[in-house]
Amino acid sequence: MRKQKKFGFFICLILIFGILIIFYSQVAIAAAKQSVTATKVKNAPAGYDDPAWQKATAVNVHFEGKEIFTGKKTSVTTKAVYTDQEIYFLFTWDDATKSVTKGAWLYDGQNWSHQKGNEDRISLLFEINRINKFATKGCAVVCHVPEGSANAKDGKFGTKSAAEKGDLWHWKAARSDPAGFADDTWVTVISEKKGGRKGDAGKGGDTKNMTEDKSMPKYMLAPGNKLAKNDILLASHISEIKDYSVFKAGDMLTYRMPKMPEGSRADIKAVTRYANGSWTVMLYRQLDTSHDDDVAFNPRKKYNFAMALFDDSGDEDSYDSEVLSLQFGR
Amino acid sequence: MNRATGISHVTLIEYLSLERIVKRLSVLTVPADALTWHRFFGALLLSLLVLLFLSGAFMAFYYSPALGSAYDSVDYALFSLPFGGIIKGVHHYGWNLFLIVLGAHLVRAFVVSAYKPPRQMIWVSGVMILLFVPLFIITGDLLTWDQKGFWSTQVRLSIIGSIPFIGDLLVRLFQGGPLTGIVALTRFYVLHILFLPGLLAFLILIHFHFIKNNGLSYSFSSDNYSTKTVRFFPVIFNRWLILFMGITLVLGLISWYWPAPLGDPADPTDSSYVPRPEWWVLFLNQLVTIFTGSFSVVGSVIIPGGLAGLLIVLPFIDSSPERHPVRRKRVMLCAAIIAIAILALSIMGYLEHFSTPHV
Q1: Binary contact (B270, A28; C-beta < 8 A)
Q2: Which residues of A touch B263 (CB under 8 A)?
Q3: Containing domain of residue B339, as a range?
Q4: Residues A131-168, buried b or exposed e (16+ Cβ, 10 A)?
Q5: How far is A69 from chain B (nearest CA, A)?
Q6: Residue B49, domain CATH
Q7: Facing residue for B354 by CB, picked from A28, A135, A300
Q8: From A1, A26, A33, residue closest to B261, measured CB to CB
């Protein structure tokens, strides 16, 4: 009987050892793709300097330049944490110049003209419904439709079928950050007439500050209001210019005025800083907004996403990441 | 018969004409150590099998065996359905545990000489089950239609295709065409949920038939514990029920904490994906890596086939009456050499596939 007990004990040990091997193998398999792990925190970070960020693991995400940035490389340090209700991302990247111009008006004493310069941006694309081959090809199947395709200019972004939907988070230094948000948009099928990019339900985006003949700005800061971050004029703080003689040479006015987002478009809030030649951008959102135009995050699941970085540049001129994996730690 | 009313009460058992079976079960006795804490692998395998059948049946309610929806249906069941993740996890971890316990069951049977007369056919039928089980994993892996399942299937089909004479035919039978597409998915699904479970149930019945007629294996001890008998119902049945509930609870907790993995959706155009072999097939995979070119058949067919053949004929080549492992030095030495070779190949495979970053 003692021999049998010893034998039973021995085979139980083998069983436990085997189970451990299985779990270790699963962990090894899971490490296949560059992955950002959101760390569970009890208290939501109040800002980009919050101690909660020290608990998160930093991932140095590599980006490769496209179009005018071809051959160049850059990287963004990415962290993520989540609470029971919200998910927070923290992005930090070097950028020698803070670009928030976005064609702002400049008065030379006689005429108004657009200043040269674009804006810095960072965007993230998640799948709301599965986008065919996004998990392996990333943005290549959504963000860069080959030239010559139907509606290639307007619809650089788009999916091949209406069932495929992406959630595009688009932080813009000039057009969304001054309002304290990232532009919450989504991506669907490219049609013959229209591109696949849509704004989420509600209001948001920006509006152009110009007269009918497009020769000068139409609006200025309304009395009693203040310019927003980076001296940007918000669309909600304007009054029509009645007397242009109040402006003197060298005066500038915002061209693309951010609107205060409402509804589903106001889901992604931003807290940011530009200092010492680098951007620090914290974006946060409800894990599940219950909106059809947003990805609903389930902490038990992994998500594929891709990022793009824009350095004072337009749509085509970006640095793109490979497809990444977002997973949630316990 | 109710004396007051004169109405006779017919029980459900009588309605179903099960009286004879119930009567036979109620008087059925089995050895007292048929299911004890040091002899439970067989009962555990049966528990796992029941769990696998049940979890598989529940998953089939939500599974859609079509290319455009297979992955999404699994994803939905796993992450959106209440308890879907636990059921999928029980199925996933259950199979892995099933393989481990099956291996341990075989090792135990070997060590205690359970293959020796008069139990040769118990051993042979058990080995047949062992060799049959990987078919479930091969067919089941593809059903999720994720990268790992798809590309693992490609590797397995290429290995099957290297079998001389019948390889191409087998691949065509599995795939139903030149590519792994909708026909292959349908065939794998039908095999996985219909034909293979039916065949496995048949093999298990044969195994039980031989156990019933030839008895359980002897134990090492010299006491008379194994000569005692207990009633199958309720004693053994209750023990089995406790084991079943215990393993269900353990697998349920594991699945709740570590959801079953689901990779990226299959992309047949992404040939850069290199699937990592499962833990149980690492040594076979390493054999295929060692023997390449015109020798590939050695690693893919001759050695694995030889090992399988050796297992089947073991009761007939080692027919000596000696049962204690200490007094079976030659057989134990051969087994130890094979076990060390399998372990070494597995470690080599692990180091090759798991210790380097996955591209």
Answers
A1: no
A2: 32
A3: 277-359
A4: bbbbbbbbbbbbbbbeeeeebeeebbbbbeeeebbbbb
A5: 26
A6: 1.20.810.10
A7: A28
A8: A26
User: Are residues B294 and B266 part of one domain?
Assistant: no
Q: Quick check: is B24 in a domain?
A: no
Q: Within this chain, do residues A98 and A113 fall inside the same structural domain, yes or no?
A: yes
User: Can you tell me the distance from the alpha carbon of A107 to that of A252, in angstroms, rounded to the nearest whole number?
Assistant: 6
Domain presence at residue B25: no
Q: What percent of chain B has pLDDT over 70?
A: 94
Give yes or no for a contact between B150 and B167, defined as CB atoms under 8 angstroms apart: no
How high is the mean pLDDT in each 10-residue block of chain A (330 residues)? Answer: 56 53 44 85 95 96 92 97 97 96 95 95 96 88 64 67 93 96 93 81 96 96 94 96 95 96 97 97 98 96 95 88 94
Q: Label the pairing between strands A73-82 and A35-40.
A: parallel
Cross-chain residue pair A7–B100, CB shorter than 8 Å: no
Given a cut of 50, the residues of chain B with pLDDT beneath it are 222-225, 358-359
- Give contacts of B38 with chain A, Cβ < 8 Å: 4-5, 7-8, 11
A18–B100: do the CB atoms touch at under 8 Å?
Answer: yes
Mutate to test the interface with A, among B76, B86, B96, B227 (most CBs of A within 10 A): B96
- CATH number for the domain harbouring residue A315: 2.60.40.1190
Query: Do B202 and B301 lie in a common domain?
Result: no
Given phi > 0 = left and psi -120 to 50 = alpha, else beta, which region is A46? alpha
CB contact under 8 A, A22 and B100: yes
Supply the range of the domain harboring residue A58.
32-328
**pLDDT the model gives residue B243:** 95
How far away is chain B from the Cα of A290, in angstroms, using its nearest Cα?
14
Instruction: Give the pair of three-digit tokens for residue A282.
Output: 């914290």
Q: What angle do CA A37, A266, A311 make, to 5 degrees?
A: 65
Residue B247 Cα, gap to closest chain A Cα (Å):
13
> Nearest CA of chain A to the CA of B227: how many Å?
13
Distances (CA, A) of A272 to A261, B74, B299: 17, 39, 59
Q: Which residues pair with A309 in a beta bridge?
A: A122, A319
Nearest CA in chain B to A303: B264
Query: What is the structure's pLDDT at A177?
Result: 97
Q: How many domains does chain A have?
A: 2
CA dist B193 and B56 (Å) reads: 8
Query: What type of residue sits at position B197?
Result: P
Nearest-Cα residue of chain B relative to residue A28: B354
ipTM over 0.85: no
| B226 and B107, same domain (yes or no) | yes
**Quick check: B148 and A29 CB within 8 A?**
yes
Nearest to A267 by CA among A243, A240, A247, A287: A287
